[in-house]
Amino acid sequence: MSDTAAASVGDAPMHLPSYITPPGETDVLFVAVTIFLVLAVFALGVFYFKLHALPEKMAHGSHRGQYQIVAILALVALFTHNNAFWIAALLLAAITPPDFLSPLKSIAVSLRKMSRANDPAPVAPAPPPAPPADPDVRAEV
């Protein structure tokens, strides 16, 4: 073996970068990056679930039926990873559906009033029938 080969094997640079740790010591860069990645994954998960709950929060003040449809669409989007369901839930939560029931109730009330106005005077109800005679009880003579 030549002297230059032996000298180059044992020689190490005098200055090592700070991310290279000596043997037997804790790798600070590895620990820092691991902690950062765990926190980043946790924060990303929290953001993902908050984003999926956005349509439900938007529809919370609306009608019960609309809220339930929005919640079901958001849940289906969460489990199927199909963005169309989430977008549909978001649009349904953002738009107030028209009120079809109030005019129909008003029509029903008006029709009820009109039908009562055309009815003849109410007839008194007939008295209830007498209870049947008990065959076991004999009349005293």
Quick description:
The chain crosses the membrane at residues 28-49, 70-95. With 141 residues, the protein is an all-alpha fold.
What can you tell me about this protein's structure?
The protein has 141 residues and is an all-alpha fold. The chain has a domain at 49-97. It has helices at residues 3-10, 28-52, 54-58, 64-80, 83-94, 101-118. Helix 4 (64-80) runs antiparallel to helix 5. The chain is elongated and about 125 Å long. The model has no long low-confidence stretch (mean pLDDT 81).
Shape: elongated
What is the SS-derived class? Answer: mainly alpha
User: Residue-averaged pLDDT, rounded?
Assistant: 81
Task: Tell me which oligomeric state these chains represent.
Answer: single chain
Listing every helix as H and every strand as E from the N terminus to the C terminus, the arrangement reads HHHHHH
Global Rg: 41 Å
**Which spans have pLDDT < 50 for at least 5 consecutive residues?**
none
Beginning-to-end CA distance, first to last residue: 145 Å
Q: Give the fraction of residues assigned to helices.
A: 55-70%
How much beta, percentage-wise?
Answer: under 5%
How many strands? Answer: 0
Strand count, sense and barrel status of the largest sheet are: none
**Continuous helix count:** 6
